[in-house]
Design a protein that fits this description.
alpha+beta; Aminopeptidase; 7 helices; 40% helix; globular
């Protein structure tokens, strides 16, 4: 397994990995229900936008490659002081126009809650991390999070943060050196926020 920084020509592969990894994610199943396109298509569109946005801004999209194929991806967002702020513009407007009214409410509430719950000190936010189902359990997720920590160190910020709506991820992230710093709700969904300082000790494998 080789860690890489995803390039423009690999954006579609990275989006596919994330869309597959998040196929059963509670928040996306709720927020994309009732959209003008099927949930599967909307999930892929969302991650296409997210990956290309970060590449356009020069932010890292970290990948794990095996045999020349991307099998794991982590989208990273640095603090506002780093790099340009690229407008999602018409691409996001196209996505937003396809959401149902309730789906848009979930998206808006998630953004509001995230601003309140995430760490206030400068940090790198792992906005999405996913590993292909057949490649899980072999330390790929851990390696991607280690790469995120190294990126945070290079920016001289204190650590990395992330959140999940999947309760099954809580103990996994704790075993990977994360501290649970907030439990909130996005409408009727639990939302767990985590923080890991650079140099934290990790026990988990993925």
């Amino acid at each position: 397994m080789e860690l890489i920084r995803v390039a423009e020509g690999q954006a579609e592969d990275a989006a596919q990995v994330l869309a597959t990894s998040f196929a059963d994610y509670p928040f996306l199943k709720r927020s994309l229900a009732g959209a003008t396109e099927p949930v599967e298509a909307m999930t892929l569109l969302l991650f296409r936008i997210a990956v290309r946005y970060r590449l356009s801004a020069g932010y890292p999209v970290m990948g794990a490659s095996e045999g020349g194929r991307i099998v794991g991806v982590a989208n990273l967002t640095p603090p506002p002081s780093v790099g340009p702020d690229v407008d999602w513009g018409e691409t996001w407007e196209e996505f937003d126009s396809k959401l149902s009214q309730s789906g848009r409410a979930y998206m808006d509430e998630y953004e509001r809650v995230q601003e309140e719950a995430k760490p206030k000190e400068p940090h790198v936010y792992v906005t999405a991390i996913g590993v292909m189902p057949g490649n899980q359990g072999r330390g790929i997720g851990r390696a991607l999070l280690d790469a995120a920590s190294e990126y945070a160190k290079s920016l001289d910020v204190a650590g990395i943060a992330l959140d999940t709506h999947d309760q099954g991820n809580v103990e996994k992230y704790r075993s990977l050196g994360f501290e649970l710093i907030a439990v909130t709700k996005v409408l009727d969904l639990q939302n767990y926020y985590f923080w890991r300082p650079c140099g934290a000790r990790m026990d988990g494998s993925d």
